[in-house]
Amino acid sequence: MSDMTLLRIGIAVAMSLLLGAIIYFGRSRNGGQGRRLPRPAREGGRGEPVASADEAESNRGWSDAAVAQEELPLPAPERQLPGKRTSDQFDRILTLYVAAKADCKLRGPDIVVAAEKAGLTFGYMDVFHRLVDGRPELGPIFSVANIIKPGSFDMAAIAELETPAIAFFLTLPAPVPALDAWETMEPAAQRMADLLDGVVLDEERNALGRQRIQHIREELRAYDRQNAAPPLGKSTRW
Questions:
Q1: For residues 236 and 227, is the Cβ–Cβ distance under 8 A?
Q2: pTM value?
Q3: Who contacts 140 (Cβ-Cβ below 8 Å, separation ≥6)?
Q4: Which of 85, 91, 135, 214 is deepest in the core (most CB within 10 A)?
Q5: Which CATH class is domain 92-226?
């Protein structure tokens, strides 16, 4: 044979050996992945399957992830501020104002102190509310807002707040009878006016007098009679 022929035969043999080695070692490596290896048998016992190194590492990863998920803190439930009405439906709104005297302003810190002394609670919509004693979930009997838009009290800047007046508003139906709600709101307005050295005005922004108070009481008595629940066992006929 010529030298060229011998060289070609040598190259072919070398390529065959290389290809065979690749196939052999490739099968050996792939075949071992994911298989359970037999655990050495104890004396008189039977061998137990064990996970391969790759499978054990994978299982450990899933276990660590599960533990981490269990340790994540649950989100805190949203806290409901007091003073939200239980229904958006209403028939009427009664309004009173506590206004500063001429050339004066009501100051934020003074309003907060007066509201606390009048039994009000700061809450929903960032305004003050008079709640039913022991039953705050029933919603506000009446609320107190700032007459300057947007009507709320920013407690972060309450020291700088100055306003000409605050508004008391009673929305009917209320969580108590209408007359009882008025008899709660009107004295609270008078109390805050005294504490703030202000004056109480009616919904038309006139000084609240006895005649106007008596007229409102009569209207609310009629409202309560009209909206009273029928006695048990009797149906309402149309």
A1: no
A2: 0.64
A3: 83, 85, 124, 129, 130, 131, 175
A4: 85
A5: alpha beta
